[in-house]
User: Which sequence fits this backbone?
């Protein structure tokens, strides 16, 4: 009997799935005589023991949170958990179903165009300082009324498939109505309205067939979800402010951008810039709050045209990238995109900025009966509900304040300030159970010394600043520049402490500390359009997360292991990295190599292989 | 695991939250353990497990008692987990070398090793071996959850074991300086 056959039989026997009359003895005799096969059998037993018989003390009790989510459908309480607020251990806010579908379409990807932040890029005078201008333009926007067209290339054919007509009405700071209709239908297909503490959404839902799935009753149907008790600038409800000004798409700011010149769109002067779909991820997410967009690759080049005066997106054209990974990605989805094909285009056909907005622009129809009516738990109060920063960006005035309670999570005070589309919010709680930072930051954070205000934790993308102190946890977020967020956090009157050793963020380290763990630590040079790394130490590993504009980002992992683990995926190819033999996995978007007795992994799902290689080459000792 | 009484399922399907709570408490442990291994992150697993039970509740009226209720719940959990895997990657959270940041269960070293080994498996192999090892399903039940023939389950489980074994062998060789 051959080893493979013997091991297949061992595997079946372990699962109690050996067919009657199978030749068990032959397999057993082989395994007794073959050291390698008996190791295989012992290892399979060990894996079973580790996976099936583990301590169960850590299993969380989900019932309270699940029932809190369901209650509004049933009883008069009408409450719902609000994303990360109600579920302190979750790592990200839960998004509504419709938005999640759009995110899934945009994420799951791997690659890009000409590099980010290294080397000279062609500079266009018109594109210079564009990121700073986008940030600054927010204050000058009070209202907007735009009509636009959205065209998508059919994934499977050469036809232009989806052609949608849309309208976007906005009034500062967070009232918005987004409508999309198919030309052929008389009724709006998608409508999203956000107005202060309420939002509602009407969509046509398709039932997505799954293998062996019997749960679909109607093929499609209209679905109305209505939510009240929405906190100011809630991140768990869709307010696609990126459609007004693409602030997240240009934070952190990059100073060298490939300009495309100027032209006229919808009667307005527009300035063009070349970016990637990953950088425009937040904008595309915002658009998919109203429509199910087709999937685009994160490395797809995007021509973005912004209004020269108010920096409002007037045209966004996504083309298929030309790198080999893109072809593989497309064929995996049954798409026939060829390099250079336009896959998605958003074009504004008419726009009025800072004109009057009709009184009923954000009204809820009187006879609308929602399929889901939820309460996110926020209640407006009089005056400040929590700590107030003494240093706010110039021109900011108080907006909504109140508390969130009754969601099953801690009671949270929320205060907010705005100037036009720009906003800043301070959320705080005295009931944080701990385990990780309050505020929905990802695990990769940086510590920042705020002087008298102690130590703060900043999310890797710089868009949130969290303070932990005895009895009070605070997070400051907003659409303003990262240094303005830090200044606000430093002035809320809380002295930040380091988080306890049992919290996730206690693994956060400085580069100097990391260099003590891995001698010869490599770091990325200062990259245009990327923030400094968020560094973590875990079990002898040094993990550096670099977040860039929009959704761009990459991770560098170093470990003192002196050899690579065996290639786990079939798609791994050998490749020369920094003058040594390494390997690349397209599935993971990861380069791995060994240098000076240290294993290095450089990975990204939003940069191309070419970009990763340039990055790898540019790494330098800390 | 033991099947719940049909009357309990029917009551939950009719909107009885107390009945549904009992179902949640029956299944939350296996569902969360399966998702934690599939997703490699305890916090995300908790989120997705919650989503799983919300989906279960919404779809309970369509449960036809043709399959075991457990199999049906695990199918919903698996689909929610795969949806999460597809929609993550907005920014890669952890490279393959990195263990999950929190280590709430078991002995840290052994746990990190098995998680790293699992993370090295392609999703189709990982979900197959986890349905067998974490949930103790039979091949025909795994076939139903995944919507693939039983023969495919058999070969995926065997491939997964072979790869996990190769991974561990390389680990030992490294440790003893043979490489």
Assistant:
């Amino acid at each position: 009997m051959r080893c493979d056959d013997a091991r297949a039989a061992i595997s079946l026997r372990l699962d109690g799935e050996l067919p009657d009359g199978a030749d068990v003895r032959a397999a057993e005799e082989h395994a007794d005589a073959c050291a390698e096969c008996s190791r295989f059998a012992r290892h399979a037993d060990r894996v079973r023991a580790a996976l099936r018989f583990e301590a169960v003390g850590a299993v969380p009790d989900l019932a309270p949170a699940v029932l809190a989510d369901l209650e509004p459908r049933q009883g008069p309480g009408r409450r719902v958990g609000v994303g990360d607020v109600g579920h302190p251990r979750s790592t990200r806010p839960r998004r509504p179903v419709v938005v999640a579908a759009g995110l899934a379409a945009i994420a799951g990807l791997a690659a890009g165009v000409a590099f980010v932040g290294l080397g000279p890029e062609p500079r266009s005078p018109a594109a210079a300082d564009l990121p700073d201008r986008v940030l600054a333009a927010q204050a000058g926007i009070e209202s907007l009324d735009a009509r636009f067209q959205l065209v998508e290339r059919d994934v499977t054919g050469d036809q232009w498939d989806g052609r949608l007509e849309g309208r976007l009405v906005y009034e500062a700071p967070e009232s918005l109505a987004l409508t999309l209709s198919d030309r052929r239908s008389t009724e709006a297909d998608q409508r999203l309205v956000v107005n202060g503490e309420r939002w509602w959404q009407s969509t046509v839902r398709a039932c997505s067939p799954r293998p062996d799935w019997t749960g679909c009753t109607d093929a499609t149907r209209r679905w109305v979800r209505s939510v009240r008790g929405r906190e100011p600038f809630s991140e768990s409800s869709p307010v696609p402010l990126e459609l007004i000004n693409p602030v997240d798409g240009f934070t952190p700011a990059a100073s060298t951008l490939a300009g495309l010149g100027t032209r006229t769109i919808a009667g307005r002067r527009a300035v063009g810039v070349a970016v990637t779909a990953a950088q425009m991820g937040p904008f595309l997410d915002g658009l998919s709050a109203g429509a199910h967009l087709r999937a685009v690759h994160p490395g797809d080049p995007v021509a973005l045209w912004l209004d020269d005066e108010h920096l409002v997106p007037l045209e966004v054209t996504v083309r298929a990238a030309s790198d080999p990974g893109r072809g593989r990605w497309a064929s995996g989805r049954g798409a026939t995109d060829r390099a250079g094909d336009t896959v998605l285009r958003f074009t504004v056909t008419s726009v009025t900025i800072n004109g009057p907005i009709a009184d009923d622009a954000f009204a809820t129809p009187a006879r609308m009966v929602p399929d889901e009516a939820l309460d996110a738990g926020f209640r407006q109060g009089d005056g400040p509900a929590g700590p107030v920063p003494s240093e706010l960006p110039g021109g900011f005035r108080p907006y909504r304040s109140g508390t969130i309670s009754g969601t099953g999570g801690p009671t949270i005070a929320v205060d907010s300030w705005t100037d036009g589309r720009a906003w800043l919010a301070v959320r705080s709680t005295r009931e944080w159970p701990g385990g990780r930072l309050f505020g929905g930051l990802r695990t990769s954070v940086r510590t920042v010394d705020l002087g008298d205000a102690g130590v703060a934790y900043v999310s890797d993308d710089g868009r949130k600043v969290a303070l932990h102190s005895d009895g009070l946890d605070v997070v400051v977020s907003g659409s303003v520049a990262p240094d303005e967020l830090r200044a606000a956090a430093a002035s809320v009157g809380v002295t930040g402490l380091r988080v306890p050793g049992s919290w996730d963020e206690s693994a956060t380290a400085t580069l100097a500390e990391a260099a003590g763990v891995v001698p010869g630590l490599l770091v990325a040079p200062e990259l245009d359009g990327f923030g400094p790394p968020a560094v973590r130490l875990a079990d002898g590993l040094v993990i550096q997360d670099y977040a860039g504009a929009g959704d761009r980002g990459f991770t560098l992992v170093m470990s003192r292991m002196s050899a690579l683990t065996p290639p786990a995926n079939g798609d791994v190819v050998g490749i020369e990295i920094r003058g040594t033999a390494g390997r690349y996995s397209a599935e993971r978007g990861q380069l791995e190599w060994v240098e000076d007795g240290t294993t290095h992994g450089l990975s990204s799902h939003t940069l191309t292989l070419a970009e990763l290689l340039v990055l790898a080459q540019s790494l330098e000792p800390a | 695991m033991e099947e719940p009484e049909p009357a309990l399922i029917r009551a939950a399907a009719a909107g009885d939250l107390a009945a549904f709570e009992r179902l949640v408490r029956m299944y939350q442990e296996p569902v969360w353990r399966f998702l934690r291994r599939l997703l490699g992150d305890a916090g995300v697993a908790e989120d997705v497990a919650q989503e799983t039970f919300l989906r279960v509740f919404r779809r309970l009226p369509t449960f036809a008692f043709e399959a075991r209720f457990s199999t049906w719940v695990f199918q919903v959990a698996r689909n929610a987990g795969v949806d999460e895997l597809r929609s993550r990657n907005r920014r890669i959270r952890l490279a393959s070398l990195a263990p999950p940041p929190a280590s709430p269960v078991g002995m840290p070293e052994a746990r990190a090793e098995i998680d790293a080994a699992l993370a090295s498996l392609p999703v189709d192999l990982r979900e197959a071996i986890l349905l067998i090892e974490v949930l103790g399903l039979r091949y025909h039940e795994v076939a139903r959850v995944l919507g693939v023939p039983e023969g495919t389950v058999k070969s995926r489980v065997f491939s997964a074991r072979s790869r996990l074994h190769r991974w561990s062998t390389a680990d030992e060789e490294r440790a003893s300086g043979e490489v």
